Every structure is written in C-alpha cells, then in structure tokens.
Amino acid sequence: MTNLHAPLPLSRGPALKNRFMLAPLTNLQSHADGTLSDDEFRWLTLRAEGGFGLTMTCAAHVQAAGQGFPGQLGIFDDKHIAGLSRLAAALNAEGTHSVVQLHHAGMRSPKKLIGEAPHCPSANEEFGARAMSRDEVLASRDAFIAAAVRAEKAGFHGAELHGAHGYLICQFLSADVNQRDDEYGGSFENRARFLYECIEGVRAECGKDFSLGVRLSPERFGMDLGEILKLAGALLTDERIDYLDMSLWDSFKEPVDAAFKGKTLVELFGALARGKCRLGAAGKILTGGQCQRALDDGLDFVVIGRGAILHHDFPNKVAANPAFEPIALPVPEDHLKAEGLGEAFLTYMKTWKGFVAEPA
After folding, report:
1. For 35-81, how does the pLDDT look when each residue is reduced to its tens digit (9 = 90+)?
2. Which of the chain's termini has less CB crowding within 10 Å, N or C?
3. Is the pLDDT of residue 278 over 90?
C-alpha cells in the first residue's frame, strides 16, 4: 500500500514531499491584463503552506486570443513574469513543487472577451469559431513553448500542458471537433501531433531540470476513451514528460463506453504500464479514505480540487487523520474567506449549486 505522505521523486525538478497535487482551479481573480493579483497570490501560497507536494496555478493562457474566462492568469507576455516570479519564490520557499498550467481555450474563448471569433482546429458553428490556418497552428504551438520558457524564467519548477476539458489541445485530439485534412488532422497520430510538438518544444527550450506534465480527460468533449487510454499509455512511457494528470470528473465510476465497463476509470488508467512518468488523477477524490483508495488503484499521486477549496491544509489534515472528511456543503462564506478565497473566487463558487450557504 503506497503511503500518501511518502515523497515522490520526479525525473526532473525537486521531489514531491507527499502524494498531494493541488488541482489547477479556475478562480477568476487575476487582473484583467492577466497579471497576478494579491488574491491569487494568497490563494496559492496558502495551499503551499497547507502541505501540498505540488502546487499548480489555475490555467494560464498562452495567447491573448486564447483567454477562456475573465480574471484569468496570463503567461503570454513578458509583462506577466514579475508577478509570476513573486509567486514562484513564495511557493518554492514552502518546499512545494511549483507549476504553471499552460492553457489556450481555442473555440471556447468567448468572443466578447477576446474581441474576435475564437480559433479552433476546424470551423465550429456551435461556438462561432473559425478554422486556424497552418501558420496559426504553428504560432499557438510556439506560444505554449514560449510560455513554458517564461515559467522557467520566473522560477517555477515546471509547467503542465492543459490537454483536457475541450480546450485547444483537446480540440486537436478530438475526431469530432478536428476535421482538418493536413498533418494535424485525420488519423489519431495526426490529431496528437500538436500536443507532441508542444512537448518536444518545451523539452528543447527549457532546462534539463524543468518538469513537464500533461493533463488529459478521457470522456466528454469529443474524447474517445480507447484513444485516450492509448495516448496515456504512450505518454507514461515517454521520458520527455514527468507526470500525467488525468481529469476523470468521477474517478470511481465506470466508463460511459460500454466496451470498458467492469472497471472504474481510475482502475483503467492505474493499470497502465509506465516508465519514469508518474500518474495522478482528479475527480471526486474528496476524503482521506478516497485518497488512499486511489493510490491503491494504481495512482502515484492524487489531484485535489474541491477538498483544497474547502481546506487549504487538506494534506496536513489527512496526515493527522487518515479518515478525514471535508466540511459538509453548503459552507458559509466566512469559511471560504478564511480559507483564502478572494471576492471574485467566492462569487464564482456561488455559481456551483449547493456549494456556498445562503446568508442567514
């Protein structure tokens, strides 16, 4: 049985001091130009203080036209480096492995927010998105790579490529969304080309001790579970990346795809052979007992989202009590404020049904 509190070495960068990763959580509380806010700084540094072995930022957009939501952290311009450097220094001082998640929303960039039609591998009527030219594909690829270089320059230990949740990398992977007829569309090998070129570019441009992770989701957003299992298996034996972060939505449910019934999602991915690459997952891993179950099912680490919103020191609480369960929902606003959520984040959490208690 893997110990949740045992260190986890990676091929690059400092070892995680335990098996807890902070999920990259959307929170809408950076400045309009993408620069770091004090609220964002407090939210993240408090989680590092609370014991997370790896602390990851929210999705940070790598191109201005790839912004996915208001108040999003940016990493598309050198003007962002000063704030990111301040954040990296504070996180690193707490002994956490610090990571920026690199993101482009693609067709999910709201036109009202970016001031133009969103970009997509192929034209998409539902989102009013236009097809990217080949030059635009290469420019977006290079923007991911340049953003990783900025993260390293700012002092972060690593970066994660956001290939999940129907955003740009995920759009390339989807046979439903990606209707291109060039080398970035058609076969699964071609649809995965954009992701692999991002990986290759980051490895070429960043230092030998800079860690690189990839986030994938196996269902929804046009994903085919069989294809994502194949991709995950390939990445887990690819020495260019250090960890794979699976966003499963519900780790302990059976897949929608009838061909894979009989095992839970976490069991399917946990059974994959791997080399030096580590495997973690997010998705309704809410209690100390569920964290341990996820490791027993084959994960190397757990990715904590809701539990980290409710308790900045979730890992420390599980260390003190292996059966720890978070505070019951709905929770008072004052509790969330005390846990380091700024006003914008608190307002966003009120859109989650049943999460924040109505004032008395």
Report:
1. 999 999 999 999 999 999 999 999 999 999 999 999 999 999 999 99
2. C
3. yes
Rg of the Cα atoms in the chain: 19
Distance CA 149, CA 271 (A): 33
Looking at domain 20-316, its CATH architecture is Alpha-Beta Barrel (3.20)
Which residues, listed in sequence order, are joined to residue 22 by a DSSP beta bridge? 304
Q: What is the number of other CB atoms lying within 10 angstroms of the CB of residue 95? A: 13
DSSP, collapsed to helix, strand or coil, labels residue 64 as helix
Question: What are the structure tokens assigned to 164, written together?
Answer: 């999940």
Task: Please report, as a single letter, which amino acid is at residue 268.
Answer: L
Q: Which residue has the tokens 């009527």?
A: 125
Backbone angles phi, psi at 304, to 5 degrees: -110, 120
Q: Is residue 360 scored above 80 in pLDDT?
A: no
Question: What integer pLDDT is reported at residue 359 of this predicted model?
Answer: 85
b vs e for 309-347, b when ≥16 Cβ sit within 10 Å of the residue's Cβ?
bbbbbbbbbbbeeeebebeeebbebeebeebbbbebbbe
Which are the contacts of 248, defined by CB distance < 8 A and separation ≥ 6? Answer: 217, 218, 219, 265, 266, 269, 281, 282, 283
Query: Which of 184-188, 209-213, 224-228, 356-360 comes out lowest in average pLDDT?
Result: 356-360
Token duo for residue 35: 């620069």
| 3 state SS of 339 | coil
Phi, psi of 317 (to 5 degrees): -70, -40
Residue count (the chain) = 360
The answer to whether residues 77 and 36 touch, using CB atoms and an 8 Å cutoff, is no
Q: Is the pLDDT of residue 203 over 90?
A: yes
Domain segments of the chain as ranges: 20-316, 327-360
Contact 307, 331 (CB under 8 A): no
Q: DSSP of 83-115, one letter per residue?
A: HHHHHHHHHHHTT-EEEEEEE--GGGS-HHHHS
H helix runs in the chain, sequence order: 38-49, 81-93, 111-114, 134-154, 168-173, 188-191, 193-205, 225-235, 265-270, 288-296, 306-310, 314-320, 333-338, 343-349
**Mean pLDDT for all residues in the chain:** 97
- Reading the block at residue 223, the tokens are 């994903």
